[in-house]
What does this fold into?
Amino acid sequence: EDKVVQSPLSLVVHEGDTVTLNCSYEVTNFRSLLWYKQEKKAPTFLFMLTSSGIEKKSGRLSSILDKKELFSILNITATQTGDSAVYLCAVEAKYSGGGADGLTFGKGTHLIIQP
Amino acid sequence: DVKVTQSSRYLVKRTGEKVFLECVQDMDHENMFWYRQDPGLGLRLIYFSYDVKMKEKGDIPEGYSVSREKKERFSLILESASTNQTSMYLCASTGQGPLLGEKLFFGSGTQLSVL
It folds into this structure.
């Protein structure tokens, strides 16, 4: 059974701190690992990672994948209160039940940035 | 902009009622998904469909059924709602092929309460 484990499940830091969110996975037929940010409504896409060691960056957020050790990290530097959200990690793989690819999500990390 | 529209933002139903959750997408996407999201459990896949009239069970299909009569519409049906089906339900859609996570679009969610 495919598995995606995120840690920590929740995190409270102060504005300006740097945070690192972790995601480890066990899947067969891996295709990609994705990070989403979920505030009040639908998750919004952050990054998609397919290759080991190549950092993806968007402003203060960055992410990297290690396909040998089967994990990814999401870094947020100089955090702001607007970064408060649930961060979801998902792994895309060939779904065991059928012909389409599927996404398996982790439980998410609830990040709270205090002013 | 891709739009995935869920018919209700909040829904309150009684135990034993039949409940329909509707999802419509306007981008001619082949793949559509229904997830439920619960605190501490993350997003869990209920059912998905990769074509009209095609459906596949996800990780937690028990107590649910789905219908995909038209490409743009994917309905989730609770035949006899129970209190343990109180949850946030998220619909998502994407086009064909691998690496779909980057192009996965979510609806705003339906918060269902079963009393």
Observations:
- Chain A has a mean pLDDT of 90.
- The interface with chain B takes residues 6, 9, 31-32, 34, 41-43, 45, 48, 50, 88, 90, 92, 95, 97-108 of chain A (CB under 8 Å).
- Chain A is about 0% helix and 60% strand.
